[in-house]
Amino acid sequence: DPIADKFLLISAFITFAALKEIPVWIPIVVITKNIIIFLGWWLRLQITGNSVVSPTLSGKLSTVLEMTVIFFILTGVSEKILFILTYLMLFSIIVSTFNYIFWGIKEIEKKERLLKISISEKRNSVLQLEKTASSLESDLKNTEKGILKLTNEISLIMEKRRAVEYISGINEWLEKTVVPMMETMRCEDTTLRGDV
Questions:
Q1: Residue 19 half-sphere exposure, CB side, CA atoms within 13 Å?
Q2: How far is CA 145 from the centre of its chain?
Q3: pLDDT attached to residue 118
Q4: Which of 103, 111, 119, 169 matches a 20 to 30 Å C-alpha distance to 13?
Q5: CB burial class (10 A; 0-12, 13-18, 19+) of residue 86?
Q6: What residues of the chain score a pLDDT lower than 70?
Q7: How many CB atoms lie within 10 A of CB 173?
């Protein structure tokens, strides 16, 4: 478990500093590195949603050197070798910390670029939807005008039909009433003429 390893290393450095085996600044540097990496991870998680930490070669080297320093302190190696390893470890801590910061910033910038692209695409989609809505509104107005014109034409046709029906009704009435009356009158007229 990487977190348990980190706590083990930190507690070992704190213990050796308390026992005056190493200077106090060494555990401070190790703790600071881990705090910076944790805060960077948390910030990256908040911004990108990515919680996966990919160890780098410099990070692995730094951890190996930290363990080596602890091992050499426990074995009582000469101070000269311990001094060299300690400063080598310090250098690897600085390099790995900046490496993690660099890659974290790169990932955050990538996410920001993707967000900007996404926002730009959404703006374009909104603009396209607005154009489509405007076009549909225009089509709707044209359809309303067409429906109104069609309604007026239907009304005219209905009025003409009523007029035709009315005239047909009059014709029918004339044929049923007036025409027979006229024929009756003609017959009577003919009969009257013949009697005279």
A1: 9
A2: 39
A3: 76
A4: 103
A5: buried
A6: 1, 189, 193-196
A7: 11
Q: Give residue-wise pLDDT tens across range 142-182.
A: 888 888 888 888 888 888 888 888 888 888 887 888 778 77
Copy the structure tokens of residue 68.
């080596």
Please report the pLDDT score of residue 2 as a whole number. Answer: 74
d(CA 146, CA 138): 12
Residue 77 CA to residue 70 CA, distance in Å, equals 10
What single-letter amino acid sits at 114? L
Q: How many CB atoms lie within 10 A of CB 8?
A: 13
Q: Quick one: tokens of 85?
A: 């390893």
Structure tokens at 58: 């410099």
